[in-house]
TrEMBL record:
InterPro entries: DUF4296 (IPR025381). It comes from Mucilaginibacter rigui. Residues 24-108 form the DUF4296 domain. This is DUF4296 domain-containing protein. It holds the Pfam family DUF4296. Residues 135-146 have a biased composition (Low complexity). It comes from the Bacteria. Residues 118-152 are annotated as: Disordered.
C-alpha cells in the first residue's frame, strides 16, 4: 500500500511540474490586459462619481462597460477568463498591477502639473500701485549722509 501511495504522489508531482507557461487560447496578452484593466479601473472611478442610486448606477455603468469592451475588441467573457488566468499566477498579476500603478501615477502627475499651470495663469494681478517697502531700521542709511547734510 505504501508503494502505491508514493507512486501516486510521484505522478501527481510530475504532472503538476510539467505545466506549460504558454497562455491558453482566448486569454489576453499582458499588454492588452494592462490596457484593459487600466480602462476598467478608470471607468470604475467615474461610475462611482454618480450618486449611489442602484438603478442609475446600472443604467450609466452598463453602457460604459459595453463601450469599453468594444474599444478593446474583446468581451466580458474573455476578460473574466484572462483575469482568472493571471490571478493564478501571482508574479504576473503583481507585475501587471505595478505597471498599471505607474501609468496612473504618471497621469495624476500630469494632471497636477496642468492644474498648477492653469491656476498660475488665472491668478489675478495685484490691484493698484505696488507698495513701497519701508526700511527696517529707523536710522538713516550711511550712504545718504551727504544728501541729508545738503537738505539741512
Amino acid at each position: 500500500m505504501q508503494k502505491y501511495i508514493s507512486l501516486f504522489f510521484s505522478v501527481l508531482l510530475f504532472l503538476t511540474a510539467c505545466q506549460t507557461e504558454d497562455r491558453p487560447k482566448g486569454v489576453l496578452n499582458e499588454k492588452d490586459m494592462i490596457s484593459l484593466l487600466l480602462d476598467i479601473h478608470l471607468t470604475d472611478g467615474s461610475v462611482y462619481q454618480v450618486p449611489q442610486v442602484p438603478d442609475s448606477m446600472y443604467k450609466y455603468s452598463s453602457q460604459k462597460y459595453v463601450a469599453l469592451f468594444k474599444r478593446h475588441h474583446t468581451t466580458d467573457a474573455v476578460y473574466k477568463k484572462s483575469l482568472k488566468y493571471y490571478s493564478k499566477q501571482p508574479e504576473k498579476i503583481q507585475d501587471i498591477y505595478s505597471k498599471i500603478e505607474a501609468i496612473i501615477k504618471a497621469k495624476v502627475d500630469s494632471l497636477n502639473k496642468v492644474t498648477a499651470a492653469e491656476a498660475a495663469k488665472a491668478k489675478p494681478a495685484p490691484a493698484g500701485p505696488t507698495p513701497v517697502p519701508t526700511p527696517k531700521s529707523s536710522t538713516p542709511d550711511p550712504s545718504l549722509k551727504p544728501v541729508l547734510k545738503e537738505i539741512k
